[in-house]
Amino acid sequence: MVARSLQALLLLLAAPAAVHAAIDPLSIGGACCGAAALTAAASLKIVTTGNTCLIERMGRFHRQLNPGWHWTIPILEATSMYGTVREQVMDVPPQQCYTRDNAPVQADAVIYLRVFEMQAARYNVADLQTAIMNLVLTQLREEMGKLTLDETFSSRDRMNRNLLEDVNLATRAWGVEVTRVEVRDIEPSPDIVKAMELQMSAERQKRATVLDSEASAIQSINDANAKATSLRAQAEAEKDAVVLAAEATARKMDIEAGGLARALTAVAEGDASGRSLMLPGNPE
Question: Quick one: which of 270, 252, 250 has its CA closest to 262?
Fold first, then answer.
């Protein structure tokens, strides 16, 4: 529209004098004002907060526009790139991977990134999103190949750290900082899932068998301990009974011996008294 207005203005200026005389000066003034307004509107660039704009002059990078209102030169200057410097989220589609033990799995991830240098993001790589996506996919396959199937489910934090470090080594040259990489889903193949279910079932049965065996062993030990305790109690009772019986017998014998001794003493004393009566010279 601006080019057409300027073209019309140039044709008007190049027209012969007779044509100029036939044209109303008010019309010429209105056309000039309209062309100027259109030129001013086309020259104004508005950059909103959180975004930035790259301007090229005659096909070469000239300057970067920060948030605000800016004036450009029509025709000579053009917008090369208009992008955001805020943190962005990129979904990585599911990717076929193989673990270290050759188990096929489907893995996907999510990337959080931020453009800190718009000029590098525009001129150092042809397609920024495609480059980051392919880079993450390649690193994801590599990290999955370093782990076994069981390790992939328990080592996500380590995988995320390694992915973040490896991806940032390449993306910093593109003016991009990857702030976080999260491996989202890891899905083994149906055959692997079935085998894992069978393995878990076997593990559960094994644990149940072991628990039953341990319970039986504990029960046997408890029974043996109870029987031993009973036998010890019975032996202690029998021992106490024998001791009591022996003590009673000994006491009985002591009593009988004491009675016998007293009886013998009494008999001896009686004999002595009788003999004393039979001696000569006894006044009685």
Answer: 270
183 bridge partner residues: 109
- Concatenating the DSSP letter of every residue in 165-219 gives HHHHHHHGGGTEEEEEEEEEEEEE-HHHHHHHHHHHHHHHHHHHHHHHHHHHHHH
Instruction: Quote the CA–CA distance of 28 and 13 in Å, as a whole number.
Output: 10
Distance (Å, whole) CA 163 – CA 109: 10
pLDDT of 257 strictly over 70 = yes
Quick one: average pLDDT of 160-167? 92
pTM of the complete model: 0.58
Q: In one letter, which amino acid is 80?
A: S
The position carrying tokens 């036939």 is: 22
Cβ-Cβ contacts under 8 Å for 69 (sequence gap 6 or more)? 44, 45, 46
Mapped onto helix, strand or coil, the DSSP state of residue 116 is coil
For residue 281, the model assigns a pLDDT of 52
| Cα 90 from chain centroid (whole Å) | 20
The sign one gets for the Cα dihedral 273, 277, 281, 284 is positive
Q: Which pair of tokens denotes residue 225?
A: 């301990």
Collect all residues with Cβ–Cβ distance below 8 Å to 50 and sequence separation of at least 6. Answer: 67, 84, 85, 86
